[in-house]
Design brief:
The chain has helices at about 5-20, 30-35, 40-50, 65-90, 95-105, 110-125; strands at about 55, 65. The chain has about 130 residues and is mostly helical.
């Protein structure tokens, strides 16, 4: 089942996913520090993610990704990585711009387009036709 999330909620899920890769115990304060947003915003987002089945959260306790949450968080992050790499390696954009644009594009781009970008990048790298600093 493909659950449609707002871009903002996807950003929270991606952040929780990234934090879970470092430390299995994630708290509201960890997300607040990483995203530089108010705790009240995070509590609201976590409730939405919980309703969608992406996280488990006990009030004032830690946040755990469900298997579905891990998968969806990983998908969002992988899109981010593909786009950022494309923007830097192929288009020659500075990292700061590539990071910002990847964060924006990851919410709009289809899986099919991401796959096409991956194939293009692989082809260009084989042919050594890409931006080199």
């Amino acid at each position: 089942m493909n659950k449609k999330l707002t871009h903002s909620i996807e950003d929270y899920l991606e952040t929780i996913y990234l934090l879970s890769q470092v430390d299995g115990t994630i708290r509201i304060t960890d997300i607040a520090a990483r995203m530089e947003v108010r705790k009240s915003s995070i509590v609201s987002a976590v409730k939405k993610l919980e309703q969608c089945g992406f996280v488990q959260h006990e009030p004032y306790g830690s946040i755990l990704l469900t298997d579905e949450g891990k998968l969806r968080g990983s998908e969002v992050y992988q899109k981010h990585l593909v786009l950022k790499s494309f923007f830097i390696d192929i288009l020659g954009l500075p990292e700061e711009i590539a990071e910002k644009d990847a964060c924006n594009f990851e919410h709009y781009i289809s899986d099919q387009t991401v796959s096409a970008i991956v194939k293009l990048v692989e082809k260009l790298r084989k042919e050594k036709k890409y931006y080199q600093k």
